[in-house]
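Hey team,

Filing this mostly as a record. A colleague (T.K.) asked me to run one chain through the structure pipeline before their review meeting, and I want the input and output archived in the tracker in case anyone asks later how it was produced. No errors, nothing strange. Just documentation.

Input sequence:
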Amino acid sequence: MTTGEPGQPRTDRSPWNWLLVLPVVLPLLTFLFNADEPRLFGFPLFYWLQIAFIVVGVVSTTIVYRMTK
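Output structure:
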């Protein structure tokens, strides 16, 4: 695989790839969701924070894709 220029190998080394560490590490920080309160629409912190982690993963993946495309 090459880039737009012939003879240049394709490289996946981009500083934007470090952003992909965020959705992996963030859910591992258990002190963030080790509580019952606050509640959002009756759901404990753990459940709506898991949904927020999914959103963070989608947003960071989209940013990395667009910036390294």
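Quick notes for T.K.: Residues 14 and 57 are 18 Å apart (CA to CA). The chain has a mean pLDDT of 87.
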